[in-house]
Structure formats: structure tokens, C-alpha cells
Amino acid sequence: MTADSSRLSRCWDYWVRDGWHAALIATAAAFVGQGSPAFAQDAGAETAAVTFGMVRSAGAVAANCLAGAGATVTITKLAQAERMTISARGLPPDTGFDVFVIQNPNFPFGMSWYQGDLESNGDGDATVTFIGRFNIETFIISPGPVPVARPHRGAPFPDATSNPTTAPVHTYHLGIWFNSPAEAAAAGCPDTVTPFNGDHNAGIQALSTRSFGTGQFGPLLRVR
188 lies in which domain range? Predict the structure, then answer.
């Protein structure tokens, strides 16, 4: 007899001997006690979502490119993290982009974390979902310098030879960069090279949360 069938057998005995109320309690205890992750997720793990927009970056506006481009971001709190979905529109078709969580929406951007990739389809739409820490507690810290990996040593942006020391720095903004200067140029934007992709040879910033201001109070601060 399996553990589950043994539990059910005992529950039936309780039903016969002690009445329906005892059986109901025993049955609930038997199944809840198994600690199923799926059950925990269904039991109110998610809360109301926070939704906000992304607009053309300051660089794109200055270059008069990406007219009509934008994105909607939805962040939903899970049991132990957040789910962030970015739905972009008006992008150049079939183009690669890179998503960063950043300290400031405009240059020089401050502390920045490479979150992942975003690929537009033939209609210029793109959607991606990330699971991570995207709320008021999002921060970067470095108590002191330690040896660093340097897989990228070539120009134009070689890896640093040491890490900086910093107290906690919160990063409440988002930025999306063209994956290459060539793709940016094809969209009518400058072909400036920036370090904002995995190989440190990205194009300019395409979208950002600059509509929330250039200060430290970006939209992730609203997720609590």
C-alpha cells in the first residue's frame, strides 16, 4: 500500500467512526501535509501586478529614430521572486535587443545588470519574460575587490581588471539596447558601439524608463 492510499484508508475509518467532520479534517491534513510545490504556488502566491511603460531612449529621440516604438512592462510578485514580462511594439523587424536593469535611464546609466535578450518578429513586436528580483529590494553590492574573470579582453570594451567597491546601490530602471551597431544603423539610428550586450559590442539604447525621470526613483521602486 502506498503512503497516499494508507492516508485515504485512515480517513475512511475516521469517517465511519467519528463522523464527517473528523474525516474532512484528516483528509485536508493528509494532502496539505505533502507540501506540494504546485499547491503552494496556487495558494495565493501571486499578488496584483504592477504595469508601466517604456519609451524611446534619449539617444533615439535625439537621432529621430524608432518613431512609434515603445513597450509595456508587467511585474507580478511570486512566492519568492517576481515575474517580469516586457511586450514591445514598433521595433524594427527581426532585430535583436538586450535588456538591462539599470540605475539611471540616461547616459552614463550607473550600475547596470545584463538581464537577457529580446528578439522582434517580422511585425516589429517582441515579448520576453524573466523571473528574478524586480522590486524595491533590487540592488548591487560589492564589499571589496576580488579576482575577476576576463573572457573579453579585446577592444572596444575589454573586461575590467578588478571590481569596484560599493555599498548597496539600488537599480530601479530598465533599458533595452540594440544588439549590434549594424542593426541600429539599419533602423536609422546612430551606429555607436556600446558595451551593453554579452560581447560588449552592442548598439545604442533603444528604449528606457526615462519617463519616470532621470533620478533614482525608477518604476521598480513601486513593486513592494
Answer: 50-144+160-222
